[in-house]
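Handout, page 2. Input:
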Amino acid sequence: MIISEIYKKQKRSLSFEIFPPKKDSELKNIDETLAVLCELKPDFISVTFGAGGSSNCNRTIELAKKIKYEYQVEPVVHLTCLGYDKSEIDEFSKVLVQEGIRNILALRGDKSPNLQKKEDFEHASDLISYLKQKEEFCIAGACYPECHPESENRVSEMRYLRTKVEAGAKVLLSQLFFDNDYFFRFIEDCRIAGIEVPIIPGIMPVINAAQIKRMITICGASFPIRFQKIIQKFENNKPALFDAGMSYALSQIIDLLANDIDGIHLYTMNNPTVARKICEGIRNII
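Output:
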């Protein structure tokens, strides 16, 4: 099933993101996480993709196959393009088709001095447009409620995002955020800009202080005062911070659902306890 069909059949979706273990031997250990996640009956599970190297591709594909064929849940495979040329994307696409995997989250990928940049794909929209020609895939794109760190302003952000949709993105999954007001304003801006595809908010429950500091540095998400107070109050008490972080994420999700958003995409960090507790908290409202 292609994921764009979900939003024609039902009002909203529930989905998770996981990442492949760094070692092939650890793929076996992912089953505990998958068993919990798939018991919760998500509409799809996205699988992240490491930059550079066939081993990253292989682990992503193997995990996607496991999700699809052992757990009967639709996988969405992340695919970055900054470090790949057209022939490499063609080969990866060929393997996905052979394995019956039809959903791709097309991403540019992070710039890094350790990544050898290639010339075929400058932006995610270039990859989306290229993949669209193959017709076998449903393509999702990423979006940034607080603007991509490299965007000049909100106007240019909307222009680039509309380019992604016009190139063929059927669904947009958002970067994490901790202030729902940013997301609501973002949705308004998208609709004004003529972007009408489903836009799914990405939520990451924060359960340790180091994690929040790292994620804010990486993605540039705002750190609301009320959330800062939670971290400062409980950062040296792990059980208390876990409960407080889960409660904060749940309050975000309930607020989003109350405002009729298109779904919830949960960044699980491969932690099944987090996914289970979130789903228990929203079981009767999603």
